[in-house]
Design brief:
Helix content: 25-40%
CATH topology: Enolase-like, domain 1
Number of strands: 3
Order of helices and strands: EEEHHH
Number of helices: 3
CATH class: Alpha Beta
Structural class: alpha+beta
Radius of gyration: 12 Å
Distance between the termini: 10 Å
Largest sheet: 3 strands, antiparallel
């Protein structure tokens, strides 16, 4: 099953919106709007082709500086909401 998730990150991270494409529990695409361009492109390249549960396991709980969350952590939260 193919679906797209549009997620608005919380917690004061740099990114403003994540558009995640998932097909049969595999991440097929990720666009992160705003945020650090290099990091956003790097995260998108790394998770493409990855199973949703593996991405959640690897990214959940990562913080950024003094923030309690990060863009990778917010991606994990978004993936947890995916149908």
């Amino acid at each position: 099953m193919k679906h797209q998730l549009i997620y608005t990150p919380q917690g004061g991270v740099c990114s403003r919106r994540m558009i995640i494409d998932v097909e049969d529990n595999i991440i097929t695409g990720l666009q992160i709007e705003k945020g650090c361009e290099g990091n956003s492109r790097g995260i998108a390249a790394l998770v493409k082709g990855m199973r949703v549960d593996e991405a959640i396991s690897r990214l959940e709980g990562i913080t950024c500086g003094t923030k309690a969350t990060s863009c990778p952590d917010q991606l994990a939260k978004a993936l947890k909401e995916a149908p």
